[in-house]
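In response to the reviewer comment on reproducibility (Comment 2.3), we provide here a single inverse folding case reported in full, input and output, so that an independent group could reproduce the run without further information from us. The structure tokens appear first.
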């Protein structure tokens, strides 16, 4: 097969990225600060609305790490975390020396289950320790059950860190994902809906917390002419060159969301007659999903073999991938507590992510259609 590979999600430049990068070179702002960094932050603040403040960082993982620090998570604390997610959601809990407590998914959005979240909170409190934070994820761009999750968090007074790494452009009740939590995080990794080649951001309503995040992200330097430190710092700021790519990408974000939603529509049509397959979709019209990746799931345990479809697509040089393997099933987290009844594990067993890039051509779509039809 000598046809070029079709990827799940590949970088998609809009055209103006170079203009911002050239400006960085012209003005010699080749540093982790500069006009593109603050411009990119303002672009995102304007886009998200709600009066939020944004700190541009070197990755989404760095943003999660700083969010945990700002929530006061320390050694031996517990943090509740959605199990069905990318490892980057959970790893920063370990960076802080804290313990992740994993929570199963619900069926509708495949995100953190309100039922098991509350069960876990009650049980952890009974066992003597109230969890310090909740990490909830809008997986594949699908908003989690915002009303339910935030009601529970409010009832027990626990901060929510909203992992919106995959959900820039998604909304719930018309409000942008990333703006619901005490802290929200975004990722601009190469495979995300927009990219800076690598980067992320912390979102907060509290201007002081944005300043604190930037202070920690630039080695926690005290105000003094010499280098003085009274806290441990990090090197987590975004570079002015990367931020230039981000500025160009913000100009095409809405177009990317439309393209990804069109890809979802494409698959919905393709599988419309296959009753053993469900295409993950918005449960109600209060949800608006950017459909970063389109996810299909085999219904009723197995008449449809998604791993056979994956192997079939591979022969056509088309990439597809199982869903994230739940954290509670990962060797590295085998000792962490888990609350649930198997929804995340079943989704992992029976689900598949399909090529969803915003830059797929008609020819590539035809190749995908032919390959899937051939399998069906
Ligand atoms: C990509 C991703 C992250 C991490 O972002 P990076 O910028 O790659 O560090 C965190 N959580 C989820 C759900 C992600 O998909």
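Designed residues, in position order:
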């Amino acid at each position: 097969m000598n046809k070029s590979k079709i990827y799940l999600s590949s970088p998609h430049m809009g055209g103006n990225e170079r203009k911002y990068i050239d400006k960085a070179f012209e003005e010699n702002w080749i540093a982790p600060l500069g006009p593109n960094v603050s411009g990119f932050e303002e672009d995102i603040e304007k886009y998200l609305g709600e009066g939020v403040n944004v700190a541009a960082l070197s990755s989404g993982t760095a943003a999660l790490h700083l969010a945990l620090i700002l929530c006061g998570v320390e050694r031996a604390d517990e943090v509740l975390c959605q199990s069905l997610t990318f490892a980057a959601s959970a790893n920063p809990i370990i960076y802080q020396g804290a313990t992740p407590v994993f929570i199963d998914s619900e069926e509708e959005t495949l995100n953190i289950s309100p039922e098991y979240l509350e069960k876990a909170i009650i049980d952890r409190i009974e066992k003597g320790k109230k969890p310090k934070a909740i990490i909830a994820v809008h997986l594949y761009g699908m908003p989690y059950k915002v009303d339910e999750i935030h009601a529970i968090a409010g009832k027990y007074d626990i901060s929510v860190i909203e992992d919106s790494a995959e959900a820039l452009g998604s909304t719930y009740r018309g409000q942008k994902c990333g703006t619901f939590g005490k802290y929200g995080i975004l990722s601009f990794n190469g495979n995300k809906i927009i990219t800076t080649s690598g980067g992320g951001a912390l979102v907060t309503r509290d201007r002081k917390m944005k300043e604190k995040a930037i202070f920690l992200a630039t080695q926690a330097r005290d105000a003094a002419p010499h280098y003085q430190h009274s806290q441990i710092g990090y090197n987590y700021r975004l570079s002015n060159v990367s931020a230039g790519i981000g500025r160009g990408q913000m100009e095409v974000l809405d177009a990317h969301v439309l393209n990804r939603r069109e890809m979802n529509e494409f698959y919905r049509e393709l599988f419309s007659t296959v009753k053993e397959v469900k295409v993950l979709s918005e449960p109600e019209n209060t949800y608006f999903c950017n459909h970063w990746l389109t996810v299909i799931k085999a219904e009723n345990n197995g008449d449809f073999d998604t791993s056979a479809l994956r192997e079939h697509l591979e022969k056509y040089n088309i990439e597809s991938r199982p869903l994230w393997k739940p954290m509670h099933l990962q060797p590295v987290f085998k000792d962490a507590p888990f609350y649930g009844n198997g929804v995340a594990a079943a989704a992992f067993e029976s689900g598949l992510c399909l090529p969803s890039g915003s830059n797929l051509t008609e020819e590539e779509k035809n190749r995908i259609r032919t390959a899937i039809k051939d399998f069906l």
